[in-house]
Amino acid sequence: MLRGKQVALAAVRALTHGGARLHKAYLLYRTPPQGAWQGMHDVFRFAASLGLDAKAVEDVASGAAISARTAYAHALLLALANPYRYTQRELLEVIALTSTLAPYCELGKASEAREAAHAVDVERDHGPGYLPEERISADDGVLSLRSRPCSNTWNRRSRACRREFAWPRSACAGGLQCRSTSTSCSASSTVGPRTVRET
Questions:
Q1: Is residue 107 part of a domain?
Q2: What would the DSSP string read from start to end of 75-120?
Q3: Is residue 64 domain-resident?
Q4: pLDDT over threshold 70, residue 52
Q5: Of 46, 82, 88, 142, which residue has the fewest beta carbons closer than 10 angstroms?
């Protein structure tokens, strides 16, 4: 009845388009549309219940092979980056960066999290929350997003790039200390290098 590849592709497209709705809201400094987060939670849970969340499919819209897990992690990671604090230009760079780092994040049940993770209540129409008071405590039925593998990847890549360039330090998503990106790095935007004032 349901074919795995078609279901995985439909899930990826739904999550990619749902993420684009969130990006547009962030770019306009508006609250995401009602039901935007709940729709993403539901699609991801459906794909995960069929064991298709990690199945990468070629998606013309995204231009690469992507899984439902990666598309969902991208939306969560971007929400944790406090998207409203950036200018529109900066936000486009953050969207590109979180898209590059999303495959390295891990999603799982919050009750099984081995280390610090961000809890995601999939029963409510909101994201993970970037402020501590917006975050919930982990319990059964709640997903967790572990960003440690993501930050480890970022650190390795930025060290490799640092050998070639000297960049000013700036604050990144999740409180990480990182350096601004360059067009020669694999985790980069198309805008190019720029100076960031330290705060």
A1: yes
A2: HHHHHHT-GGGS-HHHHHHHHHHHHHHGGG-EEEEGGG--S--EEE
A3: yes
A4: yes
A5: 88
DSSP state at residue 43? H
Q: Domain tally for the chain? A: 1
Task: Tokens 């601004």: give the residue.
Answer: 180
- Average of pLDDT values for 137-166? 59
Residue 120 lies in a domain: yes
Give the phi and the psi of residue 59 in degrees, each rounded to 5.
-120, 120
Boundaries of domain holding 38: 4-179
Residues in the chain: 199
Q: How many whole angstroms separate alpha carbon 82 and alpha carbon 173?
A: 7
For the entire predicted model, the pTM comes to: 0.70
State the Cα angle at 160 between 198 and 115, rounded to 5°.
75
Asked whether 118 and 163 are in contact (CB, 8 A), the reply is no
- Worst-scoring range by mean pLDDT, 47-56, 76-85, 159-168, 171-180? 171-180
Q: Is 196 domain-assigned?
A: no
pLDDT at 105: 84
- Higher-confidence residue of 192 and 89: namely 89
Average pLDDT over residues 93-106: 90
